[in-house]
Amino acid sequence: MHRSRVCHFVIDVPDLDQGTAFWSAALGATEETLPASSRPVYRSLRLPDSGIRILLQKTGDEKTGKERMHLDLETDDVDAEITRLEALGATRWDHQAERGWDFWVLHDPWGNEFCVLPPMFPDLLARRDPWDGIAEPGPENALPVHNDKVIEADRQPGILARELGSMLQTTREVAGLSYDQAAARLGCEPDWLVRVETGFAAVGPDEVALILVEYGVREARAADTIIDMARRAAAPPPWLAPHTSRMSAAARDVLLVEAEATLAQVHGFLLIPYLVQTQGYFREIAPGVLPGCDVDQEWDLLSRRQAHRPAGVTRLLDVIIDESALERLKHPEIMAGQLRHLFALADSLHATVRVIPSDAAFYESRGHNFDVLSFAGTTDRIGVCYYPVLGAELASGSDLYDLWARIENTSAADPAQSRAILERHLAALS
User: Fold this and answer.
1) Of 106, 187, 228, 389, which one has the greatest count of Cβ atoms within 10 A?
2) What residue numbers bound the domain in which 75 lies?
3) By the 8 A CB rule, do 342 and 276 touch?
4) Average pLDDT for consecutive 10-residue bins of the chain (430 residues)?
5) Residue 211 has what pLDDT?
6) Distances in whole angstroms, Cα of residue 312 to Cα of each of 130, 135, 292
7) Distance CA 393, CA 395 (A)
8) Which residues contact 103 (CB under 8 A, 6 or more apart)?
9) Is residue 139 part of a domain?
């Protein structure tokens, strides 16, 4: 004869530290020590009211379908519990009222399903301490974190918040700290660190400086860069705020990234690139390119993008325009004004203007407008593609830079030849 019992409920996660922080906070569980040989793959969590262990298993496999096993959480206040779990990074997926039960299906931060139900075993539930009654870290050693600063817009944090979170995660890992160890040093909850590192909780430069001190890396060369990123993430350009309510999260991210770029390499096909358009040109093409838009509102935004000085310096512009974009508009004087503006840019210290002649070889990959954005203090590049209907989207900076280099080396005329092409078009308009 033998005995058997359920000992583990196994959950696949791509990051064991983040998984431990999320599920410990979600379930009120505590991590148990495992052999050193097991820790690269597993974490064991002990529940406060059960002999069953939650076993987190590291996996790189993508989730492709519905789970065959999942957790059910019972609660005496479904709305409050869902709100608590969403603050940890969970998302609502489906509301079910069939099969005799009314419950919610949620996803954890990695897409695994679990359910929140009204009480199934009220006697067992009554033994649990209320979440509101669980002690918080003492004020004498707690980092003054702002847990109320949780990103809600589109449930997606901005690009700068995500970049900052990634920097802080790398710093913590380089310092050799788990989430629990880092939280103990900071006097905060591990789930708050998860939210910071995923961009769902905002931190200011002073808080970031304190984090770096506690991690023992404040004197590292990258520390000031991380603090500066926190400063920029906390205070996006003031001119952007009046426009964000009508933007998608993706469009907002494009403008936040662009506002940080100290070099913009802009390519125009059929259309003059946005960062070098004149007001007259924009107002003529806007109804067709942005149907139904408020032209005054859109020009206000574009003009402020053009005038913005990232980090207080004048942005460098490297402009390549296909000759197709120089065709006459309905009002020739508007196109003439646009050409004169390109001459003025070419004569400035901050811009280069080149033209792709109409007889240059065409290849499909250059058949749209795109930008390659570069930033002070880093070799990273981020790309922006502009598509009809879809609008602007962030793209691979390395791929678009390779495309830019190909266009520059095989298609674009040199500055002197480009000036001759622009002069020919201006003479035709005159």
Assistant:
1) 106
2) 8-133
3) yes
4) 59 88 88 82 82 80 66 84 85 75 81 82 73 44 41 51 84 89 88 83 87 90 83 78 81 87 94 96 90 91 93 90 87 93 94 95 88 81 83 87 93 95 92
5) 92
6) 51, 45, 34
7) 6
8) 72, 78, 95, 96, 115, 116, 117, 118
9) no
The angle subtended at Cα 339 by Cα 337 and Cα 340, nearest 5°, is 65
pTM, 2 dp? 0.57
64 CB-near residues (< 8 Å, 6+ apart): none
Q: Provide the CATH number for the domain around residue 330.
A: 3.30.870
* Beta strands 91-96 and 103-107, pairing class: antiparallel
Whether residue 240 is contained in a domain is answered as no
Strands of 199-255 (E only): list them. none
- Judge whether 280 and 337 are in contact, CB under 8 Å: yes
Q: In this predicted structure, what is the pLDDT of residue 249?
A: 75
Kindly give, in sequence order, each residue whose CB lies less than 8 Å from that of residue 250, ignoring residues fewer than 6 positions away.
391, 392, 393, 394
Residues in the chain: 430
Q: What is the CATH classification number for the domain harbouring 225?
A: 1.10.260.40
User: Are residues 122 and 174 part of one domain?
Assistant: no
Q: Are residues 249 and 227 in the same domain?
A: no
pLDDT value at residue 369: 94
Closest to 61 in 3D by CA, of 108, 12, 107: 12
Q: What total number of domains does the chain contain?
A: 3
Tokens of 144: 């003054």
Does residue 143 lie in a domain region? Answer: no
Cα angle 342, 385, 394; round to 5: 125
Distance CA 269, CA 282 (A): 15
Task: Clarify whether residues 249 and 356 are in a common domain.
Answer: yes
- What CATH number is associated with residue 88? 3.10.180.10
